[in-house]
Specification:
Order of helices and strands: HHEHHEEEHEEHH
Shape: globular
CATH architecture: 3-Layer(aba) Sandwich
Strand order of the largest sheet: 4-3-2-1-5-6
Strand content: 15-25%
Number of helices: 7
CATH topology: Glutaredoxin
CATH class: Alpha Beta
Helix content: 40-55%
Distance between the termini: 29 Å
Radius of gyration: 15 Å
Number of strands: 6
């Protein structure tokens, strides 16, 4: 299953002129092939799903780290937390453009190390399902064999 947003993302990366002095790689470019990402897009109105996803992360941070998973929370005013810590390192609009969502609804997206979308849900993803999806990925299978 090929995702058109991933293709657009790759084309944009190729089109960027990296020889410009003011060029700064995007967050996704920095973590590409290093990390998987769970992005939690918070709705304008507080949601039990967003709280549940945060709690899922907090319950099993070691399991998330073992799978090279970053937990990114993007709130309605585009403030960003990575693994529970506020940061200015990430431009939230980068994610909003690639993974558009309705600001009135909760959305969580799993992104693989290759930068493609692996799973999308309008409610929190339980850790058991998240780990099942990741552990079935060929790259994760290779990681397990190496360890």
């Amino acid at each position: 299953m090929f995702d058109i947003r991933f293709l657009i993302f790759l084309i944009l990366i190729i089109m960027i002129d990296t020889s410009q002095a003011n060029y700064s790689p995007s967050f996704l470019e920095k973590v590409l092939w290093k990390n998987r990402i769970v992005i939690s897009f918070m709705p304008a109105i507080e949601s039990s799903h967003s709280n549940a996803q945060s709690k899922n992360y907090e319950k099993e941070t070691e399991q998330w780290a073992e799978r090279d998973l970053l937990f990114i929370e993007i709130n309605p005013d585009l403030k960003v937390k990575i693994n529970g810590q506020l940061t200015n390192e990430v431009d939230a609009s980068e994610f909003v453009k690639i993974f558009p969502s309705n600001p009135e609804e909760y959305l969580v997206v799993l992104i693989g190390k290759d930068g493609s979308e692996k799973h999308r849900s309008f409610k929190a993803i339980p850790n058991s399902l998240l780990f099942e999806i990741i552990d079935a990925m060929p790259m994760r299978q290779t990681e397990i064999m190496r360890d």
